[in-house]
Every structure is written in structure tokens, then in C-alpha cells.
């Protein structure tokens, strides 16, 4: 296996690096945005630059405003982007998961209305799937949509909706036939997040930030023209979204600590037994972190290699996500413990301490988002190792016999 870029990939990387250096320079050294408006404005500004430079929707078909290029080109761009100060993140769910679902399952009018505006950064999207009693078991959702002439009326609650408070539109999965088996009575729609009856309530995280929301729907009207896929086919539509999510969450989050950061912290930490980096137990943890980092990098190379050959990465992507999230939590916890009372102080923006604290708070969520550790282990056991399947309830029982609504 060749881990280096081929000649065309190397040329593209050089072009992308130069473009990003020129265009992202204005974000270098900026302190974090102080208000939601400033945060949105920065992210929107960068999305518009990418659109103007021909780096938005790199793999999307040209007819939807994309560039029609190979997945490897998008990966090279995002690798280079993540090394820069460019403000990214707000558009990831919309452009990575929601809009590909819209252009795969929406009507031509819907595609015309929504896709290009999202790509240009004018409209921001969220994913309204999880509910208080349906996350891993997504097909167990209870938010209801009932037909009313040419509209549908939606009632229910979603939860953990990333950035819902900043979004203009979302894709929402609803139950439209409780008498059908659980995977068969679902329908997906586009919903206007500013519509009457939509209420976002922010959830406060342990980091102090509020990036997620509970979203309540009280008699919210959605035109039938905004349905994605056929009535009752929402599960198939959701699979398009989830497939894109799996591809997106396998990577290492930007700025996450690795073995080298642990090494740096150990090198400057004095303990009662001398410098931490000289202690056998500390060295063992650094070595373990190094082994995990290399394992993840090689697993990701396997996925990149598949993409480079025009193939789709397989379920082994789950291994990278499982290890990355645990590794992030373990490295940051160990390094903060090692720093003793200094670990409690608020680190200066951009410092190792601040990065460790951020990743310690963020890692717990990462172990849940996009598939919990246990669900990923099931996938690896069944689909990578070929072990016998988990016990699952029969799929044909009508939903309202399993869970009364
Ligand atoms: C940071 C973050 C961002 C998110 N963003 C969004 C978003 O934008 N939109 C959205 O719709 N959702 C979002 N979510 C929700 C996320 O998809 C769910 O939290 C996730 O699917 C888990 O569901 P749950 O929280 O209901 O936990 P549950 O599914 O109730 O799981 C509870 C526990 O039971 C375990 N468990 C469940 N089933 C099994 C099984 N079959 N075998 C073994 N163990 C099992 C789980 O591993 C877990 O430990 C986000 C979550 C997080 C943390």
C-alpha cells in the first residue's frame, strides 16, 4: 500500500495549501467568537470563500452546484483546511449529511429551492433525528406527522440537535403510520426552523457551552412538497443520511491531543519522584497512546486507499471512531491528572492546557454521537469479525403494539 499522494494528488495538495494560506490568513490568531452572530458570520464568510474558490461541494454532482470531483480530492482539501485557522464546523451536518439527503430524495423543485443556497452558505441546516427515547434505536422515534390536505402537521420532540438554534432548515424523521412495523411507518421532511410552533431550548454542557438543543414541535405545518422520499419510506431516506454521517465521524477531531502532546506535558511536569517523563508508568501510557494513534492512522489510510481507488470504505471505519473518541478522553484525562492542580486552571486560548481541557469535555459526547461505543462494537463484531448477531426484537410487529403512542 502506498501512503503517499500520487502525482496528481500531490499537485492538488500544493494548490489547495496555497489557496488556503492566502484565503484563511485573516483568521490567524483571532480569539474565539464572542457572540453567536459573530460565530455565524465567520463561518459563513469562510463557506462563501470556498464556494467562490470552487472548493465547496467538491464531490457533489455539478448539476447541484458541486464540482463533480473524486472523494479523495475532498479529503485532501479537508486535511489541509483542518491544518489552517479557517473557521469550520457549522456547515458540516448540513452539507455533509442533510443536503446530500435532499438531493438524493427531494423533488426537482425542492432541490432547486434549497441545495445551492445551502452550498453558498446562505442557509444553515440541522439533523432532527434523535428523541428522548430513540437514539441508537432510531427507528423507535415517536414524533408524529399527520396529513392535513396538502400539508402535514408535526407534533413531538427531538433532542441533541446540534446547532438547531442557529439553523434555518432541518431534515426531520417522523412517524406517519403507527400501525406499520417500526421501520416502515416513517416519513422524512424538510422543516423550516423559523416556522410557527418550532421551539429550540438549548442544553447546557459541562464545558459551559450550549451547542445542542431540545427542539419541540407543536402543530408545525410542513407542505407535502417538502417530503423527502415516499410516505412510509423514511427509514430508507434516513439510511442515506446515516451513511454520510458514518463517513464524516471517522476522522480525528481538529486539535485533539495525541501522544506527542502527552509527551510534552510529561516533559515539563515535575513529580515527587522526578520528571514525569522518566517514570515507567508515564512512559507506558505515552507508548500506548502512540500505538493507538498509529493504529487509527493506518485504519484511516485503509479508508483513504479505498476512496482513492473509487471504492466505499467499509464498516471497519467504526474501529477508528471507537478508538479516537476513547483515546481523546484518556489522553486528556491522564495529562490533566499529571498536571495536578494546574489542570484546574483555565488554559490560555490555543495552549496545550486549553486544548486538553476542551478535548476532555468534548470526548464524552464524541463517544456517543454518530454511534455509541457499544453500537460500534456491535457493528465491528457482526460486520467486520463476522460474529453472530445481537438479539433484536422481530421487525414485523406493528410499532403501536411494541410501544403504545
Ligand atoms: C455531541 C452529540 C451531538 C449530537 N448531534 C445530534 C444531531 O445533530 N441530531 C440528532 O438527531 N442527534 C444528535 N445526537 C444524538 C445521538 O445520535 C444519540 O445520542 C446517539 O445515537 C445515542 O442515543 P441515545 O443518546 O438515545 O442513547 P441510547 O441509545 O438510549 O443509549 C443509552 C446507552 O445504551 C447503550 N445501548 C443502546 N442500544 C444498545 C445495544 N443494542 N447494545 C448495547 N448497548 C446499547 C448505548 O451504547 C448507551 O450506552 C448527538 C449526540 C451527541 C452526544
Structure description:
- By secondary structure, the protein is α+β, with helices and mostly antiparallel strands.
- The protein folds into three domains: 7-88, no CATH class; 125-241, Butyryl-CoA Dehydrogenase, subunit A, domain 2; 250-371, Butyryl-CoA Dehydrogenase, subunit A, domain 3 (Up-down Bundle), CATH 1.20.140.
- The chain is built from twelve helices and ten strands.
- The chain has helices at residues 7-23, 36-53, 71-82, 92-105, 108-119, 234-249, 259-268, 280-308, 317-338, 352-366, 373-384, 399-402; strands at residues 125-128, 144-148, 151-162, 169-175, 186-192, 198-203, 212-223, 227-228, 270-271, 274-275.
- It has a four-stranded mixed beta sheet. The chain has a four-stranded antiparallel beta sheet with strand order 2-3-7-6, with no helix packed on it. It has a two-stranded antiparallel sheet with strand order 9-10.
- Helix 7 (259-268) runs parallel beside helix 9, helix 8 runs antiparallel to helix 9 (317-338) and helix 9 crosses helix 10 (352-366).
- It is globular and about 75 Å long.
- The termini are far apart.
- The mean pLDDT is 91.
